[in-house]
Amino acid sequence: MTKCLLAFASALALVLTLLPPAVSYDPLDPNGNITLKWDVVSWTADGYVAVVTMNNFQMYRHIGIPGWTLGWVWAKKEVIWSIVGAQTTEQGDCSKFKGNIPHCCKKDPIVVDLLPGVPYNQQFANCCKGGVVAAWGQDPSASVSAFQVSIGQAGTSNKTVVLPKNFTLLGPGPGYTCGPAKIVPSTTFLTPDKRRKTQALMTWNVTCTYSQFLARKNPNCCVSFSSFYNETITSCPNCACGCQNKKTCVKADSKILTKTGINTPKKDNTPLLQCTHHMCPIRVHWHVKQNYKDYWRAKIAITNFDYRLNYTLWTLVVQHPNLNNVTQVFSFDYKPLVPYESINDTGMFYGMKFYNDLLMEAGPSGNVQSELLLQKDKNTFSFKQGWAFPRKVYFNGDECLLPPPDTYPYLPSSADRISLSFLALATSLVFLVTVFL
Ligand SMILES: *[C@@H]1O[C@H](CO)[C@@H](O)[C@H](O)[C@H]1NC(C)=O
Ligand SMILES: *[C@@H]1O[C@H](CO)[C@@H](O)[C@H](O)[C@H]1NC(C)=O
Ligand SMILES: *[C@@H]1O[C@H](CO)[C@@H](O)[C@H](O)[C@H]1NC(C)=O
Ligand SMILES: *[C@@H]1O[C@H](CO)[C@@H](O)[C@H](O)[C@H]1NC(C)=O
Ligand SMILES: *[C@@H]1O[C@H](CO)[C@@H](O)[C@H](O)[C@H]1NC(C)=O
Ligand SMILES: *[C@@H]1O[C@H](CO)[C@@H](O)[C@H](O)[C@H]1NC(C)=O
Ligand SMILES: *[C@@H]1O[C@H](CO)[C@@H](O)[C@H](O)[C@H]1NC(C)=O
Ligand SMILES: *[C@@H]1O[C@H](CO)[C@@H](O)[C@H](O)[C@H]1NC(C)=O
Q1: Which domain holds residue 358?
Q2: What is the Å distance from ligand 7's center to 45 Cα?
């Protein structure tokens, strides 16, 4: 695992040095980033003690299982005497040391979070969540992770400390690019009784931004459409997520699936996908379900096709005409996203805590569903030309592949109200069939 991560990290570093800096800009979350803050809280005989805080400022991209992996390169001969609330994956060569042995002597330490339930004396505030960090837009209180590190053979004043370099972040896979550490105004802390302020002796920040282009070659999810007014189901594009895994996929009715251990995640997180024509781990199905005088109703279903992964804290971001006129969302939480004043038709959906915030592994329970009611804006509303379908869909912060616009379910030209409501019935059945088979 460690070797693998290291190889991964160095491969990533190589890719990053070979490529020009990736333009990582997400128009729906222009200020999203992960910020690492190092607060020096005390000087020691041969170095300093720092609290490292990771804040996820991204609205809808979280760090899921198996959590973050953070690396950097020391500028001098620094060693890590001890860490509370995290650990390095390798100690490295500490043979020079007699008596006290450092926790890590590597020039390029790799740090991971501890798992929940570690002994109390190894814990630190906001630590020990297995490296899982929530998205800012979903749960700001859980969008932070922290540990404390004691560093030796380092500078012992703010004039002699040299900032660590070359930060790398896996969250949990590649995709993040971290900038250089920058000295920023010292953080101030309020004592618990809020009667006294203290301040860090020195603070530096590192900002990491995400680019889907760096994260993966192919999309990770695709979108299919249906509507009450046309029985055509516009399915996900063929090989939407690349068909490299086609050889190892498992048919939904395969006997292998009854074996125990089939769902056990692999150390390198290779998926075990159900065989589909799109070969995506995730499909989002959008169904325009019903037409009322002043409202219309749509149904969303997210289906997991990976037998080895439960998605915790999943998010779905949708850009859709008139989404600013959502009146009610059933069984998902919803939050509008307004990155700019001119983009007001975007929102994020996520599971309700303890109800459907876990999207289970592929199989009969591997889906979550919701319906939403939108009020018609009479000036713009139309069922024509695929208007009532989303323009953009993101699952867990990665953009999903949509079908080509000319294949969207088309409103029959002779559609009148009676045939519309008849079709509504017929296509509800079709919807059930698509989602459950
Ligand atoms: C990181 O995100 C925060 C919150 O959105 C923002 O205030 C800050 O400017 C961002 N930092 C950078 C370097 O973009
Ligand atoms: C440094 O990061 C912290 C969050 O970790 C943020 O609150 C602060 O604004 C950042 N400082 C600067 C100057 O960007
Ligand atoms: C270092 O400390 C001195 C006072 O001890 C202070 O004036 C200076 O601003 C500090 N520099 C940094 C980079 O924090
Ligand atoms: C750190 O990154 C710089 C530029 O990205 C590179 O030249 C240097 O070799 C890296 N150092 C280490 C020790 O990886
Ligand atoms: C998914 O979660 C369920 C219930 O917590 C558990 O039984 C199952 O083993 C998990 N599957 C995977 C692939 O982790
Ligand atoms: C939403 O954005 C559109 C342009 O993209 C603008 O014309 C409209 O006034 C905005 N609506 C609101 C309520 O801000
Ligand atoms: C749609 O939403 C916008 C602002 O969000 C509001 O100004 C407008 O009145 C709404 N339209 C309807 C039909 O509710
Ligand atoms: C339904 O939509 C499809 C795809 O856009 C279109 O080819 C077909 O003509 C439509 N059916 C009717 C009855 O209009």
Answers
A1: 216-436
A2: 63
Claim to verify: residue 281 and residue 352 sit in the same structural domain: yes
C-alpha distances in Å from residue 262, one per residue of 153, 196, 250, 273? 48, 55, 11, 11
Of the three residues 162, 191, 213, the one that is the final residue of a domain is 213
Q: How many residues comprise the chain?
A: 437
Identify the domain boundary among 213, 243, 278.
213
231 and 364 co-located in one domain: yes
Helix, strand or coil for residue 236?
A: coil
Distance CA(326)–CA(337), nearest Å, equals 12
Q: Which ligand 6 atom sits nearest the alpha carbon of residue 324?
A: 13
Ligand nearest to the CA of 168: 4
**Tens-place pLDDT, residues 385-426:** 888 999 999 999 999 999 998 898 888 775 544 445 555 555
- 137-157 pLDDT, tens per residue? 999 999 999 999 999 999 999
CA-proximal residue: ligand 1, atom 6 (nearest) = 31
Q: Which of 6, 14, 17, 108 to mutate to test the pocket of ligand 4 (most atoms within 8 A of CB)?
A: 17
* DSSP one-letter code for 257: G
Q: Which ligand 4 atom is nearest residue 73's CA?
A: 13
Pocket of ligand 3 (CB under 6 A): 158, 183, 202
Residue 179 Cα to ligand 1 midpoint, Å, equals 12
Q: Residue 142, Cβ neighbours under 10 Å: how many?
A: 17
**What CATH number is given to the structural domain containing 316?**
2.60.40.290
